[in-house]
C-alpha cells in the first residue's frame, strides 16, 4: 500500500507525442500508470532517483514497443516485472492479452497488485515467485523480460514457461550480440530457434530499443 506522500514532488518527464501513437485509446490508463510510478516509484524502491525525469521515453514507451509483437488474445508471462516493466505496460497497451507478472520480491508484488487494482486492469495476474518456481502457472504463449539477467542465465529460467512453439521476447541493450555468442550452447540445449534481434522505436524514443525474439521448440 502507498503509505506516505513524498516530501518533494518528482520532476516528471512531459508526455511525448509517441505516447498517443503507442497507446491509442489506452492512453489515459498509461498516463495514470506514469503518474503513479513517478510519484511513488522512488519511495517504494521501484525506480532510481533520476528515472521520473525520463519515465516515458526510457521506460514506458521503451516497454510498449513490444506490444505489436504479442499474439492476439494470447497468454504472456513477464519475468522479473519489478515496477511493471514491461509487463504492466503491455497489459495496458494490449487489453486482449492476459499478462502474468512474475516477481519474487514482496514489496514489488504489493505494488503490482495495488497498481493493477488502481488501473482497473482485468487482464493481469500477479504471481510472487521466481521464474524457476512458476512453471505450473504456464504454459504461456510468450515470455517477456527486461533487465533481469544475461541470455545465458535468462533462457534456462524462461524457456520452460513457454509452450512448444511459443516465443521469448526480451528487451536488451547494446551488447546483445555478445550475449547471444556467450549463450550459444544454452540456446541449443533449450531448443531456441529463429533467434533475431530487432531495433525498434526509431523516431519514437531517443534511444533505440533492442528486442531479442526467438521461438522455443516447435518445427521450422
Ligand atoms: C533490475 S530489475 C528489472 C525490473 C523490470 N523488469 C525493469 O525493467 O525495470 C530485475 C527484477 O528481476 C527480478 N528477478 C530476479 N531474479 C528473478 C527470477 N529468477 N525470477 C523472477 N524474477 C527475478 C528481481 O526481483 C527484480 O525485480
From TrEMBL:
<keyword id="KW-0698">rRNA processing</keyword>
<keyword id="KW-0808">Transferase</keyword>
<feature type="binding site">
    <location>
        <position position="80"/>
    </location>
    <ligand>
        <name>S-adenosyl-L-methionine</name>
    </ligand>
</feature>
<dbReference type="GO" id="GO:0008168">
    <property type="term" value="F:methyltransferase activity"/>
</dbReference>
<keyword id="KW-0489">Methyltransferase</keyword>
<keyword id="KW-0963">Cytoplasm</keyword>
<dbReference type="InterPro" id="IPR029063">
    <property type="entry name" value="SAM-dependent_MTases_sf"/>
</dbReference>
<feature type="binding site">
    <location>
        <position position="85"/>
    </location>
    <ligand>
        <name>S-adenosyl-L-methionine</name>
    </ligand>
</feature>
<feature type="binding site">
    <location>
        <position position="146"/>
    </location>
    <ligand>
        <name>S-adenosyl-L-methionine</name>
    </ligand>
</feature>
<feature type="binding site">
    <location>
        <begin position="131"/>
        <end position="132"/>
    </location>
    <ligand>
        <name>S-adenosyl-L-methionine</name>
    </ligand>
</feature>
<dbReference type="GO" id="GO:0032259">
    <property type="term" value="P:methylation"/>
</dbReference>
<dbReference type="Pfam" id="PF02527">
    <property type="entry name" value="GidB"/>
</dbReference>
<protein>
    <recommendedName>
        <fullName>Ribosomal RNA small subunit methyltransferase G</fullName>
        <ecNumber>2.1.1.-</ecNumber>
    </recommendedName>
</protein>
<dbReference type="InterPro" id="IPR003682">
    <property type="entry name" value="rRNA_ssu_MeTfrase_G"/>
</dbReference>
<comment type="similarity">
    <text>Belongs to the methyltransferase superfamily. RNA methyltransferase RsmG family.</text>
</comment>
<comment type="function">
    <text>Specifically methylates the N7 position of a guanine in 16S rRNA.</text>
</comment>
<keyword id="KW-0949">S-adenosyl-L-methionine</keyword>
